[in-house]
Amino acid sequence: MSRKNQTLGEFIIENQTSFKYSSGELSRLINSIRLAAKVVNHEVNKAGLVDIIGAAGDTNIQGEDQQKLDVYANDKFIQTLTKRNIVCGIASEEEDDFISINSQDENNQNKYVVLIDPLDGSSNIDVNVSVGTIFSIYRRVTPVGTPVTLDDFLQKGSQQVAAGYVVYGTSTMLVYTTGDGVNGFTLNPAIGSFYLSHPDMKFPEDGNIYSVNEGNYTHFPQGIKNYIKYCQKEEGDRPYTSRYIGSLVSDFHRNMIKGGIYLYPQSSKNPNGKLRLLYECNPMAFLAEQANGKSSDGFTRTMDVEPTELHQRVAFICGSKNMVEKCESFMREAQ
Ligand SMILES: O=P(O)(O)OC[C@H]1O[C@](O)(COP(=O)(O)O)[C@@H](O)[C@@H]1O
Ligand SMILES: [Mg+2]
Ligand SMILES: [Mg+2]
């Protein structure tokens, strides 16, 4: 039973038994993510004062210039999860391939793999706009004590056992699900503890906010263009309000609280969309569905997409159920 303002630590322990695989291992894993998030938060908050903004000088496998904070956050999450010996494998936006954490060691009884977007919204780091971290957790499919393989990571989103994000914004929050609803915890920086501030978060079924990079409008499929025109039309409770932060975590978080839809569709510029299925879309889709929202590529439920590559991209439409269904109907009509 969750209580407002209880600490994340208390919440994890009290709700451990509601988790079907409850062995304490997932609790320790969430606690490790909490710890790494605090370390990264500390650095994010002083971006600009310390030499942590700007490009790191390398590009990642997506061909993107890695920002120093991308690399810092990536290192901190991997170090924390490795040191605490809490997972058997990690995959990250900033790592070309998955990392096996001494999984070949028969003593390593860890059952979970983690996929992570260490720093989401990288284009906003230098301009003091909120950014985030996204994580997705699966039980390995290969036997414990044997080396993890790509199969342990290429699982459908519907197989996730937990997912969440951290938003480094006006306050720092950790929001996650283990398949039993979505809860949000706010960091009290004076004490250094996360407190349950947003119990049982739910997307309103309808909203009046749409979040899309309209700069790509001419490249969008006709169905998406028609939906955007629908959002802008003077009719009934429309036009909707356009809000686009350019950090998936922050746009999702706002839309979950206020009601809204986020779209990053495929386009002639990005034929498969921009966002990555495994460590951006699947975790947000799991959270959305656990919060009465919905997520798809316009046709297929995001969590039903069969992954084929670690860094594959998919079109992503996510948010208030009725708004996503309306957008999907425009996509079908335009087909
Ligand atoms: O600048 P664009 O093309 O609108 O893309 C913004 C989107 O790309 C992202 O920044 C991609 O995530 P990363 O910053 O982790 O690469 C999303 O957070 C955001 O919603
Ligand atoms: Mg991202
Ligand atoms: Mg990122």
Description:
- The protein has 335 residues and is an alpha+beta fold.
- It has two domains: 8-198, 2-Layer Sandwich (Fructose-1,6-Bisphosphatase, Chain A, domain 1); 209-334, D-Maltodextrin-Binding Protein, domain 2 (3-Layer(aba) Sandwich).
- Helices cover 28% and strands 23% of the residues.
- The chain has seven helices and 15 strands.
- The protein has helices at 8-15, 25-45, 68-83, 222-232, 248-258, 277-290, 321-334; strands at 55-59, 65-67, 89-92, 99-100, 112-120, 131-139, 162-168, 172-177, 182-188, 193-198, 209-211, 241-242, 261-264, 293-296, 316-320.
- Strands 4-3-5-6-7-8-9-10 form an eight-stranded mixed sheet, sandwiched between helices. Strands 12-11-13-15-14 form a five-stranded mixed sheet, sandwiched between helices.
- The longest helix has 21 residues, at 25-45.
- The radius of gyration is 19 Å and the shape is globular.
- The chain starts with 7 loop residues before the first helix and ends with a helix.
- The model has no long low-confidence stretch (mean pLDDT 93).
- The structure holds 1,6-di-O-phosphono-beta-D-fructofuranose and magnesium ion (2 copies).
